[in-house]
Amino acid sequence: MAPGGLVTHVTSRQVVATYIVETSLPLDVAAEVLAGEQSTGTFVRVERESDDLRARFAAQVHAIEELPLTGGSPLPGSIGDPDERRRARLSLRFPLDNFGPSMPNLLAAVAGNLFELKEFAAVKLVDLELPLPFADRYPGPAFGVDGTRRLMSRSEGAMIGTIIKPSIGLSPAELAELVGELAEAGVDFIKDDELQGNGPAAPLAERVRAVMPVLERHADRTGRKPMYAFNITDDIGRLAANHDLVMAAGGTCVMVCVNLVGLAGLEFIRRHAAVPIHGHRAMIGAISRSDQVGIGFRAWQKLARLAGADHLHTNGISNKFYESDAQVLDSIAAVREPLLGLTSTVPVLSSGQWGGLAHATYAAVRTTDLLVLAGGGIHGHPDGAAAGVASMREAWESAALGETADTAFARSQPLRRAAELFGPVRA
Amino acid sequence: MAPGGLVTHVTSRQVVATYIVETSLPLDVAAEVLAGEQSTGTFVRVERESDDLRARFAAQVHAIEELPLTGGSPLPGSIGDPDERRRARLSLRFPLDNFGPSMPNLLAAVAGNLFELKEFAAVKLVDLELPLPFADRYPGPAFGVDGTRRLMSRSEGAMIGTIIKPSIGLSPAELAELVGELAEAGVDFIKDDELQGNGPAAPLAERVRAVMPVLERHADRTGRKPMYAFNITDDIGRLAANHDLVMAAGGTCVMVCVNLVGLAGLEFIRRHAAVPIHGHRAMIGAISRSDQVGIGFRAWQKLARLAGADHLHTNGISNKFYESDAQVLDSIAAVREPLLGLTSTVPVLSSGQWGGLAHATYAAVRTTDLLVLAGGGIHGHPDGAAAGVASMREAWESAALGETADTAFARSQPLRRAAELFGPVRA
């Protein structure tokens, strides 16, 4: 099969799902197995499965491009001659009429039983093209970049934020004290750790009650209210009340762990929310880390944006997790690509971030419409949190001006001091 | 580290999460990395991370048991000397106070960022022990085995069901005709395919309107109303209305694709539902198929039951998917194990099922408190659906009597005819 073979016109009533697969079947046969399982087929041909029905409802093979094998282990239970195994990028076209513009029902077709097919030694959903009816049904982000900048009074430049550390265990009083220090230090944004939910040791209501007066006093004094993303992740039936608690206290952001309430849970709270939704991607590794199975970030982030994430975690370069810089930069680019005319979502860079990564990141992404979070990188700066924030902000300002990292370091004492602890600098 | 080393008392305020891991770090060090990341740790020690805080909130290593390596590829981005890599079963104890008995917040701790740790060449959550406060918060299944049997008037024996095939594409009129035939054929249960959601080609409302009068007429005539699981999977905000549509028409079951609305979505509709919830596990392969990453069925099914699944798909032996019989039988056993005093969930066996698998299945599971679904195996029986149902029921009755498969085949013409198409028989 020639690379790109089979591509035909995609209509506004079709979804294209793209997979990385490995199989010992001929690639065109394997593609038909996948298309059949996910639309009109069953394991024996049954009455009423007419040719007309198949013509209207069967998924169609859209494109097949063979790729080199990677040497990865085949998935458990896969069948076929290992010597015949080939890897490919395979796209299927699904009629929208099969499921309508409903995310959960779409997923049954493009990401349902197919991961269990024994004909595949690898099968990973890596991209989705969705037609406009999805944007008619789902409004997407309500705030995005502009709304977030407005609420945090940061009209330009990278938005600099931090994460409450230690993740859990602070009393509300200690939390309030820390938040006061961080606000004083000049951050635009503070977030709860994803581990800080609504447990008995620090209930959300108590955290809100402790934190918001500190931020309000800071705003009265300075004219800027840092955005605090309270983690409202919880049972679906509690999300609205959790959100309302934050709103009532003057909060300007809620954080939702998208995979923990489900994409559908995010969509549910989006219908209710009156502040930006900070979309955390905890558990993403469970579905996306394997090269052989699951759902890649590029496909997943489209659904999270459609479901209404105003901010979405992408990881940052030189992070403490497994992802390469290339993967991270692709994730940031993916979140910034236009999607069905929706308001743009803010990529959130975090994990091991500090000022020394600004120039290398900016060189690749060419924007400051980013929320850059440093936990240890701000709290742990040798000269304290204010110096931590200054080091981040000065580095990003320099990068956005087109300067070199060397220039920034020559000018910025906080950045030089940060490098003593967090170096080396990424040029 | 000795097998089972480190086990200490688990209290009613702790969760134990068990993982399969591979790492090049010493196992005890790797265990501390995992425990730290998922509780009080960050990548630099920060102010306020006191020893007292760690003592109260840090996750603790509970047990480490080294396992043989399997030869599977390490996860992308994992670090360390490959020659040092070891595999282990590792359990951590988490203080319940960190998250409280909230499933989404629990998941942040036991199944959040940890899948992204580069210290791990494999990291899969395989089991969970939950303390009683979870059962105080979540009522679990409302109907389970007994409620399901009552509603379908099948007080004993395996519950025999089928799936609408072709999966999608039937008009409501064709669907009604097929349902009439299947009811006539004597099935206890019929379900929508997971691919049949609420699309424009066959909206749920039209399906309900077409199907329910057929079942009501059948019930008037025979005294038995087969249970029909309408797939109500959709946006969270539409689940209750979808459910109510089914109820209003006299329906006795709704199907929810658990992973597509999220475990949290299932829990949400459970609070509203007045009929059994048929839990489909579409997408489970994305999180559970890899041996190296994700969440195993044994852990996942506990959460699905807690969230209220009255029925839960487990696959069946000799299925058309990748799972071995051993895996399937372990899944069925897992669903049948007691869990926090909850009402028992019905395991749902499907995929390539026919009468010839009854004796081998029964020999392993020793119960008929099962919903056994055959799609092609009933629709595609050489003598029609009634013979298909008879072949299934006669085989399961024989198995439950302790007979051999040979005895059943000698007696049952429908079973012999089924074997011509679906054989060989599993003794």
Please state the structural category of chain A.
alpha/beta
Distance between the termini of chain A: 43 Å
Task: Characterize the overall form of chain A.
Answer: globular
Proportion in β-strands of chain A: 15-25%
Which fold does the CATH topology of the largest domain in chain A refer to? TIM Barrel
- Total number of β-strand segments of chain A? 13
Q: Structurally, how many domains make up the residues of chain A?
A: 2
CATH class of the largest domain in chain A: Alpha Beta
Contiguous runs where pLDDT drops below 50 for at least 5 residues of chain A: none
Classified in CATH, the superfamily of the largest domain in chain A is Ribulose bisphosphate carboxylase, large subunit, C-terminal domain
CATH architecture of the largest domain in chain A: Alpha-Beta Barrel
Radius of gyration of chain A: 24 Å
- The ordered H/E elements of chain A are EHHEEHEHHEHEHEHEHEHEHEHEHEHHHH
The largest chain-to-chain contact, stated as pair and per-chain residue counts, equals: A-B, 100 and 99 residues
Strand order, main sheet of chain A: write it out: 5-6-7-8-9-11-12-13
Number of helices of chain A: 17
Helix content of chain A: 40-55%
Mean pLDDT of chain A: 94
Oligomer: homodimer
Largest sheet entry of chain A? 8 strands, parallel, barrel
